[in-house]
Design a protein that fits this description.
single chain; 223 residues; alpha/beta; Rossmann fold; 6-stranded mixed beta sheet; 4-stranded antiparallel beta sheet; binds adenosine-5'-diphosphate; binds magnesium ion
Length: 223
């Protein structure tokens, strides 16, 4: 489902060049659940952003869901993100002026799903994530746990093959972190998605994912 070969990323150039990824190689099969561990600055978010088509690599090749990302135009990359990728960020990234329903509906609007089907699917999804009673609320009216549930719903609504979760519980207290993680893992399992989960929690990584990739200074050690 995901293959990286000699992937590298350098931010900036000349004397201000920052190497964020160096010669990264790995393969992740469809339906695998993989945790990415590594200290701050080791390149975890850079890797996730490139896999999700939010950023581009400097060198190397990356194939995700059969798409050779470096060859895609901006438009094709946007379609790839919309059709294949669900992304969950530490800081939620919900649109503050929109309701929960509008935030979760947006990917379906972009995918040109009709209004009736949109309403049905969003209602069903919000109930699945435990937000059926918060449909008309705005993000500021929600707790952190509820915001991340809304972000999970938005990430899943287009039924992506790959779910990328970058420290999804990093801004939550431990009770909310546990329940959001349970929700996320249940959804991944039910839908048979491929999961990449950046986390600091070794124990959680070992318990809930099939494999751990460790990053250090922009390199991965695959075990
Ligand atoms: N937009 C950027 N511009 C310049 N350097 C960046 C940028 N994003 C990340 N970096 C640098 O790349 C390295 C890896 O960062 P990141 O992928 O965010 O690490 P992690 O998610 O593991 O904390 C760090 O040295 C960071 O400072
Ligand atoms: Mg990060």
């Amino acid at each position: 489902m995901i293959t990286a070969e000699r992937l590298s990323k350098t931010y900036g150039s000349g004397t201000s060049a920052v190497p964020a990824l160096s010669d990264v190689n790995f393969t992740i099969a469809a339906g695998e659940r993989v945790a990415i561990l590594g200290k701050s600055g080791s390149g975890k978010s850079t890797l996730m952003n490139i896999i999700g088509g939010l950023d581009t690599a400097t060198n190397g090749t990356l194939t995700v869901a059969g798409q050779h990302l470096a060859t895609l135009s901006r438009r094709q990359l946007a379609d790839f993100r919309l059709g294949c990728i669900g992304f969950i960020f530490q800081s939620f990234h919900l649109i503050p002026s929109q309701t929960v329903e509008e935030n979760v509906t947006l990917p379906l609007v972009l995918a040109k799903v009709g209004a009736g089907e949109r309403r049905r699917r969003v209602q069903e999804m919000l109930e699945a994530v435990g937000l059926g009673h918060r449909i008309g609320h705005r993000p500021t009216q929600l707790s952190g746990g509820e915001r991340q549930r809304a972000a999970v719903a938005r990430a899943l609504i287009n039924e992506p093959a790959v779910l990328l979760a970058d420290e999804p519980t990093g801004n939550l207290d431990s009770a909310n972190a546990t329940s959001v993680m349970e929700l996320l893992l249940t959804q991944v399992q039910t839908r048979g998605m491929t999961l990449l989960l950046v986390t600091h929690d070794e124990e959680l990584a070992r318990r809930h994912t099939g494999r751990v990739i460790r990053m250090c200074d922009g390199r991965v050690e695959v075990n």
